[in-house]
Amino acid sequence: MAALRDRNDLFQKFYSKVTTVLNIEEFGMVLLDQEKKTYKIIIDQAATFARLHPGQEAVLEMEFQASDAVFQRIASSTEPVYFDVATLSGLPDMPAYVHFWKAIHLRQVAAVPLKVGGEVIGAAFFHVDPVTKTPAYSALLQAVSHQLAVAISNIRSNEQVLQYKQMLEQENVQLKEEINSLYNFSEIIGSGEKMQEVYRLIRLVATTNSTVLVLGETGTGKELIARAVHNASPRKNKLMVKVNCAALPTNLIESELFGHEKGAFTGAVERRIGKFELANGGTIFLDEIGEMPLETQVKLLRVIQEREFERIGGKTPIKVDVRIIAATNRKLDIEVNEGRFRPDLYYRLNVFPIHLPPLRDRKEDLEALTWYFVRKYSKRTGHQIKTIATGVFKELRSYHWPGNIRELEHLIERSILLMDGGVLKQVQIPLGQAKNAEQRPVAGQGLNPGQHDMVPTSEKMTLKNMEAEHIVKVLKICQGKIAGVDGAAALLGIPATTLHSKIKKLDIKKVDYLD
Ligand SMILES: Nc1ncnc2c1ncn2[C@@H]1O[C@H](COP(=O)(O)OP(=O)(O)OP(=O)(O)O)[C@@H](O)[C@H]1O
Fold this sequence. Notes:
Largest sheet: 6 strands, antiparallel
CATH topology of the largest domain: Rossmann fold
Organism: Arachidicoccus ginsenosidivorans
Protein name: AAA family ATPase
InterPro entries: AAA+_ATPase, AAA_lid_NorR, GAF, GAF-like_dom_sf, Homeodomain-like_sf, P-loop_NTPase, Sigma_54_int, Sigma_54_int_dom_ATP-bd_1
Domain Sigma-54 factor interaction: 188-417
Keywords: ATP-binding, Coiled coil, DNA-binding, Nucleotide-binding, Transcription, Transcription regulation
Bound molecules: adenosine-5'-triphosphate
């Protein structure tokens, strides 16, 4: 019985044991709920005439209180309890099944507590002949009940495991769908010439097994491109496992990539599978590869060359079939020249480079990207945005986007949070960038990224002027509102009272910020 895995099998087996070994035709079983406050009948094997009794169905549906006198009596006993049904049914506050026993003319019921590890989980009931009440018979009832308790406890654990398994499977399917809908090719916005070239390269390389190196400034969408390559490849139904080489401390990166054996180093309490093993059959995406420590670079080189590695502290080489996509915002050739990146690894990775243009060089896509993020965030925030003022696009085009698409995305998100009504009239281009947009030189048109903050001129550069200018700008964005979550003080990160006194001190007037 203890080996049984589902309730039906248990019933069959229990039935055959009880009827043959104990010679009992009518029996039942009740189980406590998880909290052990109530219990229900889960097996009810009654004689035919009992099954025809109109009260039976109702009793089977009922929930009983574990604190009732019958259950308490059984739970506190270490051996079978024999109930005389006529006497029992005459007592006050009896559970309904006792009256049902009386109605179907049972005379004596033996009840045995079901215990696992000393804990009561339920009880078994047997309709017994009063003359059979001997110690030997009691011992037999107890032995059968003990097996029953172990079996039901195993079945419950098995049911729980199955439930978790189903949950995980569902979650897995859901996550895969989510990843697909988040990152399929069509989610890459941009149809300008520069992006067309990127798409052509993705199509060319996706179906091969070649290593791909995605190069581009921060926030240009390198991860999106890596996903697109993976999703357009024959490996699309397997995982793309991402490793952020910059986010991991040097001493952990190898264990993260290759895994470790139990006890390989202090703290390695369990064996751990590395990302390369996890990505077997699929793709590994090594983000920020330029940040990888030199010692790890040697090991990576070996995996690329031999498709083989060992777990830390492990002796057996592990073979994997993994496609490698790496990305970096560093100029790897310079890193090689300066001794921070191994040349042999660089040549291995640089098989098929895809250069992602910075946003300032693909301004033809700005409008489509803006609309894309406006839709994304209006959906999330519940704001209905139908129109974007033309001034907004003008302003966006005049900015040089050091943080690229990620910066644009955040800017739109913030602007939507702060806006009122259905027209996006204004975006908060970072400080010192909003005014005189047309005259301002922008990076990519003669300026280097980062230089922009130093451009504006002479006497207006005092701290006081800059502070006043910034406060006016923020007040404009907030349409003059000072306090509250969407007020200027919150946006500036200072208390409203401080802002009031600054406005006074800097002699800022309403006409300066209200149209
Ligand atoms: N062409 C695009 N269309 C739509 N969304 C994009 C596009 N490019 C980037 N994004 C979005 O911009 C954000 C930044 O992209 P991603 O993380 O891929 O950049 P990255 O180049 O890998 O950045 P980093 O170098 O900082 O890791 C993400 O939210 C991404 O979805």
